[in-house]
Design brief:
This protein is an alpha+beta fold. It contains 18 helices and 38 strands. It has four domains: 198 residues, Immunoglobulin-like; 140 residues, Immunoglobulin-like (Sandwich); 48 residues; 204 residues, Rossmann fold (3-Layer(aba) Sandwich). The strands form nine sheets. Strands 1, 2, 3, 5, 6 and 9 form a six-stranded mixed β-sheet that branches. Strands 4-8-7-10-11 form a five-stranded antiparallel β-sheet, with no helix packed on it. A hairpin with a 2-residue loop joins β32 and β33. The longest helix is centred in the last third of the chain and has 29 residues.
Length: 764
Amino acid sequence: MPVPWFLLSLALGPSPMVFSLERIVGPQNAARCSPGLSCHLREGDMLCMPGSIVSALEPVLVPTRLQTELVLRCHQETDCDLCVSVAVHLAVHGHWEEPGDKEQFGRATDPELEERKNASLQAHVVLSFQAYPTSRCVLLEVQVLAALLQPGQPVGSVVFDCFEAALGAEVRIWSYTQPRYQKELNFTQQLPDCSGLEVRDSIQSCSERRERKRETGGETGNINSHMCFDQASPGFRTSNLSIPGRRFIHCAITALPWLNVSTDGEDVHLLLDVSEEQHFGISLYWNQTQGSKTHRWHRNLTGPQTITLNHTDLVPCLCIQVWPLEPDSVRTSICPFKSDHRARRNLWRAAQLQLLPPRGWRLNAPCSLPAEATLCWQAPSGGPCQPLVPPLYRENVTVNKDLEFPLLKGHPNLCVQVSSWEKLELQECLWSDFLGPLKDDILLVETRGPQDNSSLCALEPSGCTPLLSRASTRAARLGKQLLQDLKSGQCMKLWDDDLGALWACPMDKYIHQRWALVWLACLLLVAVLFLLLLLLKKDHVKGWLRLLKEDVRSGAALRARAALLLYSADDAGFERLVGALASALCQLPLRVVVDLWSRREVSAQGPLAWFHAQRLQTLQEGGMVVLLFSPGAVALCREWLQDGAPPPGEHSPHDAFAASLSCVLPDFLQGRALGRYVGAYFDSLLCPDAVPALFRAGPVLALPSQLPDFLRALQGPDAPGPWRLADMAEQVSQALQPALDSCLRPPGTEETGLEMGPELENRT
C-alpha cells in the first residue's frame, strides 16, 4: 500500500522508522477514478494558466480536497525514482432551476430540461506540480451522469499516477478546474531523503552515493568529496537564536556547508564553516504567502565566511538557502527568525496600508501575518477612533492582496484599523490623502430591523446618541436640524444595505453660527467699555492713544524689510566702504545682512550654505538682495559668464559674492530677478558701462547720486514720501563720504581698521 505523507512525516521525526512503498512499473502516466466516474488523462504536459474565477450558471464539478501518496516508479528492480500520486476529490457546485408551475399542474415537463438531466456532466481538472527545479501541469477529463448528482454532495475522486520528484525536495501541488469556478486547492510538503525507506536500495542515486561513502571510509569525509553522509548532530547550530534541532541526511553530490546563526548586540552573523576550497552559493529571500519567494540577496562565495545582517533587516519570513556550486546539488533552506521578537516588530513597521481608488485597499507586508481589519470613525478633535461594526465586520486579512470596501463613498474621517491577537498594530485614515484633512462632520448610524423598523443615532465619543433625546451632547442639541439636513439631502450616504446605513452630515454651518454670535457679543462689549473710558477719563484716554501710536511705530521698526548685501572683497578700503553703507542703512530702519558682520557663521557653514540660508530668509520676508558692483565683482561676473565657475581656492573662504554667483546668475538668465534683486555701484569707483549687460535688465543705481531711488527700491511699497526719502539719502551720503574718500586716496596713505557694524564687535 502507498504511504500517506502525514504518516511518513510522523515516522521521519526524532526516531526514524522504515517504510516500504508501492511500486509502479513503466514510465507512462495514468489516471484512474472511483466508481460512477469516467476519467481520461490528456496526453502531454500543458501550460499552468489558472485564469480568473467565473460564475457557474449550471451545476459544475469542482475539487474539494487533495490527497497525496508516495510510490516508486521503477524501470528495473534496482532503478526506481520517488513519485507522488495525487488524488483529487470532487463535488457538485450549483444546481439546476426547479420546474415551474407547469409541472405542478400536471402539464408536460420541458423536454429540454429532461434531456439536460439525462446528459453527462464533464469537468477539466488541472493538477500543477512544482518542485525545484522542475514544474509540470496535467489535465484530467472527468465525466459523471447528471442524474447521479446531488448539489453540494461528493461524487468521487480521480487519481493521477504520478509526479516524479527529487529526494529531499519541497513540492507544491495546486488543483483547479478550467474554467475556474472557485479558488484553487494547494498543498506543500517536504519529501523524505535516502534514510527511512526500506526500498532505498532500489533508488539508484542513494545506493551509488552510499557506495562512494564506503569507498572513502569516512563518516563525514572531506567537504569536497562526492559522498552521501549522515549529520547526526543538529543540522543548524545557533548561539542566541532558538532553532529546533533536526536530523539531516544529505545525499547530494557535494556535502552542504555548516551554517551557524549568532547574534552580537544589534547585529546577526551568519557563519559558514567550510573548507578553504569549498565553493557554494547563499541566498536570502522572503518566503511569502502561497509559497512565493522574493529574493533579497545572493552571492557565490568560497571558503569560510561571516555575513553580518542588521537587526532592522530581520522579518519572520526571512530565510537562508545554502548549496554547493556543483551539478545536482541539494539546496538547504532554513527560516531561523520565525519566533524572533525583533523580526515580528520589524514586520509591523514595514507593513503599510494602501488605498486603491475607488473602493479597493491593500495591506502590504514582506511576510504573511495574522491580522484582522475593521473600519472606524476618527473625529478631528482627537480621541480614539471609534470602530464601526457595519459595514466591515472584523475579518481576517490576506497581505499583498487587493481587497474591497463595501462602501458607497469614501470620507476623510473613515480610517482602517489592523489588529493582531487583539492588539492594535496599524491605523491609517487612507481617504485623507485624496479627500483632504479630517472634517468636522458627524456620523449618523441608521439601524434597520424587521417590519421596516429603523432607529437613528449619532456617533459621539460617549457612544451612539439617539437623535431628539435629552442628552447634553452636541448631537442631541442639534437633533432636529440634523434630521432636516438628512431629509433635504445635505448628508452624504457612505454605506447602505439591509442592516442599515451610515450618513456623514457636515457641522460647519452650526459652528460658524455659534462663533458669529460670540464675536458679535465681544465687539459689543469692547465698544461699551471704550465709550465708558472715553467719557470718564478723557485725558487718560488721550495718553493711552499716544502710547498705542508709539507701540505701532516701534512694531513697524521691528518689522523692517531685510536687505542682503553681496560684494566682492577687492581690498580693505572697499570693505570699509561696504561696512559704512551697511551701518547707515541700519539707521533707516532696515535689517541689513552682510558677510562682513557674520564671519564666524560664514566660516562654520561655508559661504555657499550661508548665502543660501540668508537669501531664502530675505526673500521669504519680502526683502531685497543688493549686488554691489566693483572692479573685482565685474571681473568675477565676466569670468562666470565666459568660462563658468572659477577654480576652487582662488577666493577668500569668507567671500560670499563668488559663492553666490551660481544661484544669482540663473535668476537673471531665467527672468526671475525683477522684484528680488537691485544693483548698485559707487560712481567714483566704477563707470556704469562696466556693469555686465545681463545685470542691467533690472535697476542698477549709482551711489551716492541715486540714493533716493536706491532707498525706495529697498523699502518697497512701505517707502516714505519724497521729502522723507531725501532726508534719508542725505543722512546715508554723509555716512559714506569719509569711507569713499579713503578709497580714493593713493595707495600707502589709507587708514587702518574696518568700519564695524552693530554685530561685528560681538562676532570677531
